[in-house]
Design goal:
Blueprint lengths: L12 H6 L8 H10 L2 E5 L6 H12 L10 H5 L8 E5 L8 H19 L8 H16 L3 E6 L3 H5 L4 H15 L1 H4 L4 E8 L16 E2 L14 H7 L1 H11 L3 H12 L14 H10 L5 H4 L4 H9 L4 H5 L2 E3 H5 L9 H6 L4 E6 L4 E5 L3 H15 L7 H13 L3 H12 L4 H4 L4 H20 L4 E7 L2 E7 L3 E9 L3 H11 L11 E10 L4 E7 L1
Helix pairs in contact: 5-6, 11-12, 19-23, 20-21
Length: about 525
């Protein structure tokens, strides 16, 4: 019987320990962090344990030794000194104006000033922050610990509003810049967030921060490793297998496929999403727990605003400079999609310093691509799962005519402004490619799909238990040309000795009608 109490939604280390919640010991890494450096920045996706990390550091620097009983920290730390702590949490605010941000800063500055005093000459937020740090040090005789959680929340909420972003950057750059000028008074500082707004942004003056987001030493500081699952949850794995009526090996493979796969550095161990993992063990059933807690609306708007090719997004190759920071003036949505946890590192070429990205796991892939569908096709979000189910049923039963009529309906009546931007010809082609990518990526979760695109054409192979479909899609050509290409390129050759029925289909898409014009079976 599952007797563990899982800390779902619990972000306070003290209450977690006192109330007997399950905890995977990360304190050896935390001790390494505090004993080998002073200024850090960490980027991780939402619900990945950043706030709990901040709270654990707060308990440590408050000298609360009793909370660490039985953990690695208990034997590592000998002195347990108590430091003044300034903890700023930007997680809860709704930041739709500079005034709303200032209300939050005013509130926390007021609370700090109640503890450490004020000065009438400190008129701005950054001057008040500076004064609090100095007085905290003078009154306690100890240097100050500064913990800033979700530093980027206002900036994320203002994506797409360049004027508001500029005001936030200006305000936060000056506020966070105090960390550099007050170095002699600071014992330790950590800023966490989902993203890193770089170079010409809030971090341009903070070159004393060590970014550990892609540091192999700290890959495991948030999230759960496979080894930690087996060391802490072995009985629960057996119970989950029994509840799902599958074998122990299959339950481990299912967990891995659904929730593992986050790689935060080159050649590093994959990390499991802790939120989805804990929910699965608490409820003893699989679910899209992480994805259901937040919709990536701002990412979809960014993809559409930049007219981005979704196939390219899912097969991106880039370098560390791009992954490490978000330039607000850039039209590249990849850094924010990667840092938000919807893409992860799949491979690395050390010779050229190139990272290959992809979806981390099935939960993210299915959730994200399914969420994209209503933004690109004539279908409601509520009907999307049903339509995908019908697609799968049609290809599995050999009913390709119904499949293509359903696909036509996805293009039909789509508002012109959804498709066409500043370059109508380019955007019409891009829209057609993006809808096909979404549909076949979702169908591919239930069947086997190989999908390739380039030079105005798409070819794919779709395999079910009974059928093998070889399809060629043309833009502004003819279905006959598409079918002829299948024959000339011998796309069907690898399946010549396969016992399943082989179906070759040439398809033409017309940019004039913005729909599939015709399909032809050979």
């Amino acid at each position: 019987m599952n007797t563990k109490i899982y800390p779902i939604g619990i972000q306070n280390f003290e209450s977690l320990r006192k109330d007997g919640y399950f905890y995977i010991d990360k304190t050896a890494l935390i001790y390494q962090l505090v004993s080998t450096g002073r200024y850090y920045f960490l980027s991780r996706p939402r619900r990945f344990g950043k706030s709990l990390l901040i709270s654990t550091l707060e308990a440590y620097f408050e000298g609360k030794k009793e909370l660490f009983e039985g953990l690695a920290m208990e034997s590592l730390e000998k002195d347990w000194p108590e430091y003044p702590i300034l903890h700023l949490d930007l997680n809860t605010g709704k930041y739709d104006s500079v005034e709303r941000l200032m209300y939050v800063l005013e509130d926390v500055l007021g609370r700090w000033e109640n503890l450490y005093g004020t000065s009438p000459t400190e008129k701005t937020a950054e001057l008040r922050f500076l004064g609090v740090i100095r007085r905290a040090y003078e009154r306690t005789g100890q240097r100050v610990v500064i913990l800033i959680d979700e530093y980027d929340k206002p900036l994320l909420q203002a994506i797409g509003n360049e004027d508001l972003q500029a005001e936030y950057r200006s305000t936060l750059k000056a506020f966070y810049g105090v960390l550099k000028t007050m170095d002699k008074y600071i014992r330790f500082a950590l800023l966490t967030g989902v993203t890193k707004f770089g170079k010409v942004s809030v971090f341009s003056d903070l070159n004393n921060l060590m970014d550990i987001s892609m540091d192999r030493r700290y890959v495991e500081i948030c999230g759960v490793t496979e080894e930690e699952i087996h060391a802490n949850l072995e009985d629960e794995l057996q119970e989950l297998a029994s509840a799902q009526e599958i074998s122990y090996e299959k339950v481990c493979a299912e967990l891995r496929a659904r929730y593992d796969g986050y790689h935060f550095a080159a050649k590093s161990e994959g990390m499991y999403n802790p939120f989805s993992l804990l929910n699965t063990f608490a409820k003893m059933e699989f679910g899209d727990y992480w994805f259901e807690t937040g919709t990536p609306t701002y990412l979809v708007e960014l993809l559409k605003h930049t007219s981005y090719d979704l196939y390219e997004m899912a097969h991106t190759e880039t370098d560390a400079d791009v992954l490490n920071s978000i330039d607000s003036a850039s039209d590249n949505p990849i850094p924010v999609i990667y840092q938000s946890g919807y893409l992860t590192i799949k491979d690395y070429n050390p010779r050229f310093g190139i990272y290959k990205l992809g979806f981390p796991n099935l939960e993210v892939e299915e959730g994200f691509v399914k969420y994209l569908l209503p933004f690109y096709a004539n279908i409601s979000a509520a009907k999307a799962p049903f339509e995908i189910g019908r697609f799968v049923h049609e290809v599995e039963s050999g009913d390709y005519d119904s499949f293509f009529r359903r696909l036509q309906s996805f293009f039909a009546d789509t508002p012109y402004e959804v498709i066409v931007g500043q370059k109508p010809e380019r955007d019409t082609e891009l829209h057609y490619r993006n809808v096909l990518f979404i549909v076949f990526r979702l169908v591919g979760l239930y069947t086997q799909v190989e999908y390739h695109t380039g030079d105005g054409r798409i070819d794919l192979v779709l395999q079910t238990d009974r059928y093998i479909y070889v399809m060629e899609f043309k833009l502004n050509g003819t279905a006959e040309e598409a079918l002829r290409q299948i024959e000339e390129k011998r796309y069907d050759l690898p399946f010549a000795s396969d016992g399943r029925e082989l179906i070759k289909i040439g398809v033409n898409f017309s940019s004039k009608t913005r729909n599939i014009e015709r399909w032809l079976v050979g």
